[in-house]
Amino acid sequence: MEQFAQQFVNGVVLGAMYGLIALGYTMVYGIIQLWNFAHGEIFMVGAFGGLAVWTALPESLAENAFLALPLIFTAAVFTATFTAVLVERVAYRPLRSSPRITALITAIGVSIVLQESVRLFYPDGKRPQSFPGLVAEGNFSIGDVRIPWVSLFIVIVAFFAMLLLQAFVHATKTGKAMRAVSQDPDTARLMGIDVNRIIMVTFAVGAILAALAGVLQGMKFRQIDFHMGFLAGLKAFTAAVLGGIGNITGAVLGGLLLGITEVMATQYIPQGSAWKDVWAFIVLIVVLVFRPTGLLGEDVSVRA
Amino acid sequence: MKSVDSDFSPSSLSGLAGNFPPRVLLRASGLTVRFGGLLALDAVDFEVREGEIVGLIGPNGAGKTTFFNCLTGLVMPDEGEVRYKGQLLVLRPYKVAEAGLARTFQNIRLFPNMTPLENVLVGRHCHTKEGVWSALWRGKRFREAEASARMAAAEFLDFVGLVPDEDLSAHSLSYGDQRRLEIARALACEPGVLLLDEPTAGMNPRETQAMLELVQQIRDRGVAVVVIEHDMRFIFSLCDRIVVLDSGCKLSEGTSVEVRKDPRVIEAYLGISPE
Questions:
Q1: Which domain holds residue A103?
Q2: Which candidate in B75, B103, B111, B189 is best for mutational testing of the A interface (most A CBs within 10 A)?
Q3: Interchain proximity A186–B93, CB inside 8 Å
Q4: Which of A7, A14, A300, B19 is the most buried (most CB within 10 A)?
Q5: Residue A227 lies in a domain
Q6: A300 at interface of B, judged by CB pairs closer than 8 A
Q7: Which segments of chain B have a pLDDT < 50?
Q8: What pTM was computed for the model?
Q9: Over pLDDT 70: what percentage of chain B?
Q10: Complex prediction ipTM
Q11: Cβ-Cβ contacts under 8 Å for A276 (sequence gap 6 or more)
Q12: Residue A143 falls within a domain, yes or no?
């Protein structure tokens, strides 16, 4: 039982990170029906942006988590947002009215470009880079379940980011405009909404969340590399589909379910750990076959 | 500001004080739209004055909806220009909305998964100033602005005769109510000119009568209205002035009496030349 509880906690931590990335996927899809396969790379670029700034800090600052963490997060968010907005402007906007498959292939191309850029231009980028832990090492215990402080930190950051996002989408004017654009872009335009700006904001918000996830992942595994966005991106994509395409609550739920599934399968299925990365895609296939709209997905006919 | 138009018809003065002809709000000149080889609009001139209700009629395919799409920036004209209060309009939908033109659609286009109130709030987009941080912080100023926006939205709903229901999505409203909601949303932009594309399509006579009264009330609020309709009784009893389009050309223009007697109009509709 404690083993189950322990694994459950691990699953939630993993799932929180998947959820953060999945949000960017699902929001961009909701607004321009594009599977932005470069989103995993935005997550990676964010982590590298954070690391670059941390490396440049004087030692006295770098050791102080209270000062270094905000700087790392800020740097990660700026790098990722800048990259995402640039990609949207340069690669996606010119293709806004072309067939979806064109944009999809472009996204895959962008993803390769970003990976290779980091590999080539980040100092020693072809090797994994060690990432600072910063949050106190060690655990605290609830009963027999041991929870590393860094895991608690991850869940708290993810939780507040999602709460802020919810408030943003539902309470702000821009958030309302975003929902309007996702339901009917032409009509939204006629309400005085600058659709191009809203699309840019959507990419930016997705990038902010992905950057947070990138730093959190670095802190947890103490290591990042130029390839980390690929698998994380695919799993977040799965989480978004599982939760229901375009549905914000769904992305978070999908992320959590996926994280928990992965951890449990690894634990309880014999030889499960060798198949660690396969479970996510089994889930993806099952969802696509039996419930293509996802758990919280709307009936597509209502949208149209 | 005095208008210099001499061909001004007195009937559009109804309901307005003073002897000066009301000034021109919206003027389209020489609007031309080609779809491939098809001339959808052929150098159409059109104007709307303050406080007017203008009817836009014509057989199917005459270019009425294209004309609306053109005014609101959904279709770019190949030639011609549109001026609003004398200013040249940039024909981009969100610019047009900011300037003061709002419209409804022939086939209703609400935001289906939002509540009626939220739909109207989106309509108020150009008139709400609100920063992201203040919204997340939810300070006193924000709550006051939010409350006043909601109050304004509720008033627009009330004006068209709808009751705000927090639990209802717009797509579950009845057809007539959806049309009313679309009008409320358009009015929330606080336009100077409201463009209605077949507001009574699919309505029964009672609903049509209610719509007629609603459009008159909208005019009484100081909003000029341009309405596309196929229901001639509706058009003739409502409009100060009527413009007839046929095959993309302006065929005729005048009061309902003038238009009804115009042989070209009768020919366009019935396909025969009268004696």
A1: 2-127+150-302
A2: B111
A3: yes
A4: A14
A5: yes
A6: no
A7: 1-17
A8: 0.82
A9: 87
A10: 0.72
A11: A262, A266
A12: no
